[in-house]
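Note to self: keep these together.
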Amino acid sequence: MSRLALTRDSWDSIPVGLKFAFFAFFDASLGLRYDSGIFSLLIHGDPLWILHFFEYVLSSMYILHWLLNNLQGWFRAIAFVSSPILILLIFAFCLEQLFVGQESTASTTFNLASTLFSGFYWGAAYLAIAAGLTLTYKVQRFGNFAQAEIMLFGAYVGFTMMWSPFFYTLVNDKKVLNIDVAKDEVLTWDLLFWACVTGFVLTGLLGVLIDRLIYSRFRKNHAIPQTMMIASLGVAMILRGILYLRYGASQHLFVPDIDWRLSTSRHEFPGDKWWWPSVLSQTARFRFGERTVEKSHDDMDKTACIEEGKPDNFSSSWDVESEICNVTEYLPFYEIQDSTYYLQYTKAALIIGVFASVVLLLFVLNMTRLGRQMRAVADNPDLAASSGINVERVHMTCAFLSAGISGFGGVLFGMYVRVNPEVGLSILLPAFSVIVLGTLGSVRGVLIAAIIVGLVRSISEPILIGTGSVLDRPSYAAFGEAMPYMFLIAVLMIMPKGLGDALENWQIERARNRQGSIFSLRNVSLFLLLIICIWKSRVRHLLFLLLLQITETPTVHRQLLD
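Structure:
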């Protein structure tokens, strides 16, 4: 067979969709960089580069999706794990092409520790609602649109206890509310503790009450999930109206003690502690586009102009006619500077409290008899009932846990963000993006998705601020709320059923190959060791970890450890 025939056969073997994706990719690249392309025949100005931007991203996502579906073995696993990073690189390269074509330079600055903890904060705020949504969908099979208002109910439980006379401090033998006590730089914990406990219990009981009065009647009449979802919208409106009637539209902040709001109530993260990686105590500045700064000097002679261009990253040119020296500075792609980050205790409480509660929920679902009953009802309610499980009691327990976790998160959320009855809607929609990304009904997938979505938002906001100012669009900073949805669309093009489904399929494949569970004690230990190695950059330990992963025989493991 001739070489031409082999080339033709290879070309014919490529799917039509992949050919079109490559064509769109190159067309978008040329359009962004040189303001050309097919669409330039019809469109000009800002709509052209916006259209090329989306063309570039969508074609790149399709190519990445094709690669993930056709790779095998470890290559596919590595590509799957690194897919969020690849998506971010696609967006970064797209910005580079855009600003080269615009003949400008966009600069974005990241305080790495601030970006990390802001991502955890947003992830915890979304997870407080998404965990309850996921548990409700897993067991009762409907999306509860009232989950955000249930979270706000927990926040208002904290406000009510803050205003109540039962929590006070004796000042000169007089009872003074904690919020009115003068600052003494000593944190008071009793109100915070009891507010969290009461918020969890009362909000959980509210969830049980709603389930008994409304949702159980739908289940008895064999209503479809869509009907229950629409009914939850009515419940959300009723709860929001009750909050308006009782507390009004003004914003409130849960302050268990005035010292919690002091500027000194924070923890410093320096780079000189053994437990804190120095890389996170830095501020990174990235530049996209031409990365040049040009300056003209009319107060130099030719000799001084030549000397001005001799240092590295500088060049100069002398205009004979105007006798002006043009100096060009070539800026680096990134710069690193040492910095310090201070984490407020109120933000830390939300992060630690919400993530710890969801981890405890995972333990209950996977390690207890109640968790096994809930999973049985979720899989097949009729079979669970025939085996002796009280299905309605499981539904009631599910309603209590899902509402209680959201109410507990609402108390902690109200410590950091001023809350009114309308705040819930602004968190509910991103929470739905979290549960879709993590796979509907997968608590483990939602936990991972919340971290990813939170980091996407914390990373995108500095980028939007830097790029918006260059494009004369300062309002782009408000677009940060929409970035989780764009990232969700990109990920679902690669994994249409979400992260939880991908993890479940990976577990099934490992079980078929008799490799054990992904979350076995050995794999969890190796993962923690990997995190420690990356955290402290211990290359020797990392090599030891890889050797343990390669060797599958337990006796070899014992010999290495000995």
